[in-house]
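User: Assemble these into one structure.

Assistant: Restating your components, then the assembled model:
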Amino acid sequence: MAEALRVGIAGLGTVGASVARVLRDKAAELTRQCGREVVVTAVSARDPKRDRGVDLGAAKWFEDPVAMAQTAEIDVFVELIGGDEGPSRSSVKAALEAGRHVVTANKALLAKHGVALAEIAERKGVLLNYEAAVAGGIPVIKTMREAMAGNSVTRVFGILNGTCNYILTRMEAEGLSFDDCLKDAQRLGYAEADPTFDIEGHDTAHKLSILTSLAFGTRIAANDIYMEGISNISQADIRAAGDLGYRIKLLGVAQRTESGIEQRVHPTMVPTASVIAQVHGVTNAVAIETDILGELLLSGPGAGGNATASAVVGDIADIAKSRPGFQHGPVFGLPAKELRPYKKAQMRSHAGGYFIRLTVHDRIGVFAAIAKRMADNEISLESIVQHAAGPDTALQKTVILVTHETTEAAVRRAVDGITRDDHLTDKPQVIRIERAE
Ligand SMILES: NC(=O)c1ccc[n+]([C@@H]2O[C@H](COP(=O)([O-])OP(=O)(O)OC[C@H]3O[C@@H](n4cnc5c(N)ncnc54)[C@H](OP(=O)(O)O)[C@@H]3O)[C@@H](O)[C@H]2O)c1
């Protein structure tokens, strides 16, 4: 049998401790599947005294993950520290430069430095595997990088943040407010004490930037992503969506258009009957549309120790199975040097249907003024519904408009015009409608 694969794990938190446990508990299966043993020979974390709930055997403790990355005592460096700078970046870079294979779950690091790190990995002829960085346990990277050769992707979109999907699911199912659902998510450990990163869309954007690069062969450009979070979604929106046959999801969408590639993260109305609308709670899903395959939807657990460890262990096993001297495939599907600068489509040119909810003074002429603003901007309406709004129903009304396909620029001009007309009693709400099967 070949020599054992020696693994060093940096970071022994939720994911790192789970990876160590799975490698220990499943050692016999992994040896059979890989044709060699996979052994944790080194570990690193901040606190050497903390009980990790797993027997780390004879693994050598490293205070400094960079020193562990460079030691000749490991073949694979597994980075599970997190963060886009500091020890995660310096240790991954050091490991690749030292000719070690790297496995990471760190989307923030890849979103910012993925291409530069891929260049080092490709130059050194080692693997940089990152299945767990996007949608946790769902094997989306492998699917896009390996199983879809020859396909041209037209759109990739998904529910990439379990916290947001959990909140939106409970808001719909139980009629609760955003704030109440967020508090519950924090109590149950689905949301961080500071939830901004998740609920304002940053986490989804990091994952989307990686999917965009794989889908379109572009350099990663996470800073360019149009982003809106879910904190301003209200019960009024959820109910109106339901009445109209839609469900609200926070989607990350990357799409090829005539004016470039759109990358956007925002609350989205999807048809209630579509497959992605059936993805509830903390579950993630990724839909990939291609010319050959049509639409593929992968769904499953997007976070948590075990689900994420499953993807990390799969990446380690791929390294254990790879033959010495074998030329590895490029990290992002194309050689890092060939990834093209990405041509950004302006959000104002986005084309699609729109849901617009207006709370207006109940007075003569308001309805006509709204209709005029729509017509002036060549927006054709699929439906327009008016009903009493809030506690002062005698004084204000809700007007809900659903447009046929139009552009973001036209909708913004129309809504700005309606706001200037001084008929609104509250901020207008605009939610984009996404086509989904
Ligand atoms: N949690 C998930 O469900 C999930 C899902 C997908 C991807 N990920 C990604 O996986 C990575 C790890 O996430 P996590 O949830 O496991 O984080 P975590 O529970 O906060 O664990 C982080 C670990 O890194 C260690 N660490 C921090 N600074 C260090 C340093 N300077 N040197 C060595 N070790 C250091 C910590 O040590 P101490 O324990 O001693 O403090 C801790 O063990 C992140 O990139 C995250 O985005 C997580």
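The first strand starts at residue 5 and ends at 10.
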